[in-house]
Amino acid sequence: MINKVVVNADEAIKDIQDGMTLMLGGFGLCGIPENCISALVKKGVKELTCIANNAGVDDFGIGLMLQKRQVKKMISSYVGENAEFERQLLSGELEVELIPQGTLATRCMAAGYGMPAIFTPAGVGTEVAEGKEVRNFHGKDYLMELAFDADFALVKAWKGDTAGNLVYRSTARNFNPVMAMAGKVTIAEVEELVELGELDPDHVHTPGIYVHRIFQGKDYEKRIEQRTVRTK
Amino acid sequence: MINKVVVNADEAIKDIQDGMTLMLGGFGLCGIPENCISALVKKGVKELTCIANNAGVDDFGIGLMLQKRQVKKMISSYVGENAEFERQLLSGELEVELIPQGTLATRCMAAGYGMPAIFTPAGVGTEVAEGKEVRNFHGKDYLMELAFDADFALVKAWKGDTAGNLVYRSTARNFNPVMAMAGKVTIAEVEELVELGELDPDHVHTPGIYVHRIFQGKDYEKRIEQRTVRTK
Amino acid sequence: MLDKNGIAKRIAKEIKNNSYVNLGIGIPTLVANYIPQDINVVLQSENGLLGMGPFPFEGEEDADLINAGKQTITTLPGSAIFDSALSFGMIRSQKVDLTILGAMEVSENGDIANWKIPGKMVKGMGGAMDLVASAKNIIVAMQHVNKAGESKLLPECTLPLTGVRCVKKIVTELAVLEVLPQGGFRLIERAPGVTVDYIKSVTAGKLIIDSDVPEMQID
Amino acid sequence: MLDKNGIAKRIAKEIKNNSYVNLGIGIPTLVANYIPQDINVVLQSENGLLGMGPFPFEGEEDADLINAGKQTITTLPGSAIFDSALSFGMIRSQKVDLTILGAMEVSENGDIANWKIPGKMVKGMGGAMDLVASAKNIIVAMQHVNKAGESKLLPECTLPLTGVRCVKKIVTELAVLEVLPQGGFRLIERAPGVTVDYIKSVTAGKLIIDSDVPEMQID
Description:
Chain A is an alpha/beta fold. Chain A has helices at about 10, 35-45, 60-65, 85-90, 100-110, 175-180; strands at about 20-25, 50, 70-75, 95-100, 115-120, 135, 140-145, 150-160, 165, 185-195, 215.
């Protein structure tokens, strides 16, 4: 096996440069690469284009990078509640490209499957279709959407082994597997880095071939955005 | 949950009619739906179009259906060693469409993902490209290939629960998950049918939403095509 | 006239036994509370869960287990987890039988607008465009008129569209309406105490009224 | 002149440390036996396995665990299993660094024919067309001439193609040749005891010969 282990987030992201395009896994604050985001904030790299389903909240997730004005452009499906985001967008400091969620996921997946483009009905007849090729198959219209290209994909898994095989936990899986497949360089942070042989080959969600660097993350906060409970 | 359980293979395949198109999971003889094949042979349904990576051997797998002249057309990537297959092909009794293995898998997957067509470089510049649209992305040519359509998909899993969630074992996974997603009706046979809650949601390979019928298979032979060993 | 829970209750009656359903945020989420006990319904959450259970008990929240509204939830025996691409794969391939979502406007040919108001901060379409472009059956849960008192059932949408010719049925605080394939809102039911004339007065799109429009039965 | 194992041994020297490799059926399979112990190589089998191990010990065969040649094999610590679509997904997206496969013919511009002889029973291309269309680096392992004594290194292939302009290097029983981007077989090495003139005589395609062609070092 090929050893993909790096010591920490700083080491993993050290060659991420100003102006690059990053994919960041997660849905809301669930399954986001917390350690990588902290390291990016610390490094202060700027002018980033971030492909991520959401933009975090003011003081967590990608919101931390927005606070430091590190993001030039967000490519997302829903940017939620984030006052700093809204301020930067309205002032023109931040560019935003909104993409249907399924299209976003599938354009990542397409890159990992070596498919340059995919067809989806999402957005047909709406402003999302502007400038895009529409094609009819079996009587239904589809948009042709191109695979995403990212310099780095930053994903968070539950467990990973030294060969880069990843296993996700519950709905923290979300965009992580498709982004893990799509990065020119994929960095995985894991809650538990295990030895070869500890993961069942049948349970691996992301085969190590897609992962270039892996590290044992620390101090996971795993913040809950909408704590909703019932009483016993 | 929705209960997908039927009593046995005969019940599961009872509405498969002459002239239909079937997908059959498996690679070689590994992970094939043995019980469904036996039931199809017993039922004697004819003029079938079979989408399957291989065509079995003379006395096992799809070979059993060939012996009974139930197959009109095979859509496969490699038809291997099968004398009856060869005889029927050369005599014109059997039609064969050969498709690159990755294209075959991806055309199944496309159906399950609701994508009417995909792009692949496989076959560009070869006779496989004849009559197909060639499209250049980023300087490289790709063929546009259409999603497969099948009346029934017959797959074999290791374990499955009553809601149709499936878990495969080792390389018996192969084409099964992508075909399970692609059938208008998907029938899954399993070595072990378990109760709801016995499968870890994180380990489910095929979510039950794709499976219409599931049954506890029996008498699995699991024949090995190339027994290759080393000595201790 | 119905309240939000009344709308949710009425929509719950549209859900068939043995079906997979995706519930949008807002009123649609409330529908889950009114699904009859005797039918099997599996809720799909587009962030990657099939078989969504109720909210967790206090203290049992799991940060890794949320729904598409980012609320903490639970799984059920028989649940399955998957990634976002497969989630929308099952939506696009029409394995999800019914989608229930909110709207700002619906047109008489079934177009829906529910994601963007020009000049206002736009948060994004999330999964709505994928859902409306793919689902076999789409029911809209919304108020009949907007805050300015204007009808949300229009000849044509005025807001940027989410999807075209996709809405099959609409349930408002006043009425249940079917969108006809040839265009037009067919009035199927009135809310208790609401007259046909009143529904007419707040429906800007073409309204088709049969001789007898029954009152809703929601309990 | 090399035997099959000699060809495999020479090709093994082309494999880089920390690489993912797909081995075709025939001579390429033998390459696995000669990969140096001190380098990390992960074998991908296109039926859905990353990290292919050796054949099982007698009595430990598992019918569910085979390679693309349908042989019983084993996994290794760190192996991963996946479906056929993802397997070709990683091939198409060029995550597999090197593909080694056999051929019936190779042309001087890198076209390869290895799946079909008109008039003979055709078994199919299996995964070969996907592999050659996708791989970053393709090495062909084959005999220099066919059974009729005709060169298999041609100006143009005569058999139906498997892929175009894709072969980077060829190792035969006689020589190692590089396919140049502008076309032509550049003779890199001679097998022990084989002369340049002899190689010339059995190479029908354009052969580029440098002033000094070293003999292979395979042990």
